[in-house]
Amino acid sequence: MADRAYFDWNATAPLRQEAREAMWAALALTGNASSIHAEGRAARRLIEQAREDVARLTGAEGKNVTFTSGATEANALALTPAIEIGGRREPRDRLFISAIEHPSVLSGGRFSAGHVEVLPVTSDGVVDLDALYEALKEGRIFGAGLDVTEPEPLPPDHSLFTLDNIIIMPHIASASKTARDKMSWIAAKNLIAGLKGEHLPNCVNPQVYSR
C-alpha cells in the first residue's frame, strides 16, 4: 500500500523538528510567567524572547505580537467593536462577513448578533456583487475596495460604477510589459545587493536593519 500524502495543512501542519525541540525546552520550565519569583521571571523571559523572534521574522515590533491558542481565538480577538489600531481605539458598529467564512468568524466574535451581517457569495466563492451594491447604496457599508470581481473586468455599465463609495481596481494591473520590466529590474537590484551583503534598495520593512 502506498504511503498516504497529507494535504490538510490548513488545519494542522506537520511539526518541524526545530519547533518540537523549542516546545520541549519550554515545557521543561516550571513557572507562571505572571509571577515575580525566579521561576516566573524565567518563563516570562522565554515568552518575551519568542515574541521578539516572531516580530523580527515578520518585520513587526514585539509589542504588536499577540500569542493565542489558535486561529479561532485570534478571530474572536480581532472581531471586536472596539479594536485598537496603532494605540488608538477605532470603534466599529457593524461587522460584514462573507457566507463562506470559518464558523469562528460567522459567529461575529465580540459583535452582538444584531450587528453582524452576512453577505452572500456566488458559486465561485466571490461576494455577490448585487448584494454588495445594495449594502453600499443603502449605507449599510460605508465604503469598499475591490481588486477581484466576477466577471473580471466588470462591464462598463455595471451598477457598482454608479456609486461613489467604492474603488474598483483591475486585479491584473501589474500584467503590463512596463510593470513587469520594472518589477524584474527591482528584483534584480535587490538580489545583487543581498549577495553583496548590502541593504536592499527596495525593502518594504527597512526597520529590520535596525535590529
Account of the protein in words:
A two-stranded antiparallel sheet has the order 1-2. Strands 3-4 form a two-stranded parallel sheet. The protein has helices at 17-27, 38-58, 71-78, 103-106, 129-137, 177-195; strands at residues 82-85, 88-91, 95-98, 116-119, 144-146, 166-168. The protein is an alpha/beta fold. The protein folds into four domains: 17-64; 71-119, no CATH class; 124-171, no CATH class; 177-204. It is extended and about 65 Å long. The chain has six helices and six strands, in the order H-H-H-E-E-E-H-E-H-E-E-H.
Rough outline: extended
Structural class: alpha/beta
Strand numbers in spatial order across the main sheet: 1-2
Rg over alpha carbons = 23 Å
- The domain tally reads 4
Strand percentage lies at: 5-15%
Overall helicity: 25-40%
Number of strands: 6
User: How would a textbook summarize the main sheet?
Assistant: 2 strands, antiparallel
How far do the termini sit from each other?
A: 51 Å
Low-confidence stretches: none
Count helical runs.
6
> SSE order, as H and E?
HHHEEEHEHEEH
Nearest-integer average pLDDT = 86
Oligomer state equals single chain
